[in-house]
Amino acid sequence: MSDPSEAPTDFAPRAGRGVTAATRQRLEALHTRAKACLERGDHDYAHDLLTQCIAEDPGSLIYAQTFRANIAKKYAGGGKKSSMFGSLVGKTGRAAVAKAAGKGAWTEAFTAGCQALKKNPVDLPVLRELATGCGELGHTETQLFYLRWALDLDLHDVETNRLGGEATAKSKQYEQAIACWQRVLKQKPEDEEARRAISRLSVEQTLHEGGYDHELLKGEGATPDLPAIRVSDLASKESDGQPRRPATISAEPAAEESIVPPLSREELEEVVEEEPKNLTAAGQLARILHVAGESTAAIELLRRTLAASPDPESPDPESPEQAKLEEAQLQMTREHVEATQDRAKATRKPAEIKQAKQAMVLSNQAELEVFAARAKRNPASVRDQLELGLRLKRGGNHREAIKALQAARGDARREAEVQLHLGECFQHIEQFKLAASSYEAAIKASATESAHASEETHKLALYRAGVLALGLGDLDRAENRLTELAGHDFGYRDVSDRLDKIADLRKNA
């Protein structure tokens, strides 16, 4: 009898082809063995087992996640990791993967890719080939997973960001797609493909968020390119001295008005100084500063502009321009955090680490201000209340976070998440009964949700409830919740150690 761990050589996944029940059962057994190897430190054997899983089922996100976790654990360990990774840069196994993929031999392609990562765990070209293969087979989740992995290794790699921009755009993740293309543009300021992509995706994002039918708006022909920005759109004033609102974008410029290049940085600075409430000019200038590497100045500019606008006396305090500027501010803060963390990881210099921490503080404060303003404008918006509550919690203001989170309980789809955050906030302020009640509500809500994202929420809620009960001396409840968690995932955090502790406490009682 052949070894059941041996992958069949005649299996070649095809786009749209599913995995049979028998194959799935065999792969799950291999995955379980691989996780056990990972836990005891036998990373090479775990890698081989997971290679078989991925080669036969490249669309499984769980297999890919365990595969990456095994590599991360194998190479964890300070200086040794850094020196080894550094010596591997430039060595790639991409050719073998691309050759097999070109023949449609997907099992061989994914096997070659996994074997290449065993030799060089920072092989960006191989990760890109794996992502491309997943994309061709229609496995969007794993495609994005491999691209995210590659970006974690090098956030500013041009080719990875190109692929990321294309893949996330297809998934209608416009914000992520724009961020990828912006990183391309930052590395290659003259890249016309990146400029066109950002322009196109910004329009598609607006249409998507507004619920517009893109095909109806296009009409008979293709959507024309947007014209260049007019000086008059940004800086001209009407006869009453008030800033003129930008004209509606049209396919062709008006006959009497010529198209000129966008305003320069210096010109925009003058406009912003004269008109501190000019949202359009502030947005343009902030983008220039951000691309130039002056992200802190860009974020501060947007904060000042948003604080000055809109006019508190206005009957309609929210405008599309303001919402767009808020989104730009959030995006810039996230990119700034990513960039500073990337530098800190690469250099390990105290100054870079300090800057990364400062960027996190700045990001949370900017997000807090945006969502506080939105929650104030739209007190009935469950989403805005939840986002505000999360930022307050992250900033350590647990009492105010509780108020916002309680206002966000109206969305049944996010009930488990909200209750879990409430429980953690109550526990921080030592309201243990309320915390326990919230954890139980989170367990109940996540058990009834079908979304994949609720699985982690369910496990964390069980863990929080069990640990809190153990701390309060309620051994029965602690044992029940932690045992239930162990039934889902015995390797979750320190659940097995805590169950052993409960057993010891019962023996010594």
From TrEMBL:
Q: Where is this region: Disordered?
A: 234-260
Q: What keywords would UniProt list here?
A: Repeat, TPR repeat
**Matches recorded under SUPFAM superfamilies:** TPR-like
**Which Pfam families has this protein been placed in?**
TPR_16
| Ranges of the TPR repeats in the UniProt entry | 158-191
Query: Which PANTHER family does this entry report, sorted A to Z?
Result: TETRATRICOPEPTIDE REPEAT (TPR) PROTEIN (PTHR44858:SF18), TETRATRICOPEPTIDE REPEAT PROTEIN 6 (PTHR44858)
**Annotated protein name in UniProt:** Tetratricopeptide repeat protein
Q: Which organism is it from?
A: Posidoniimonas polymericola
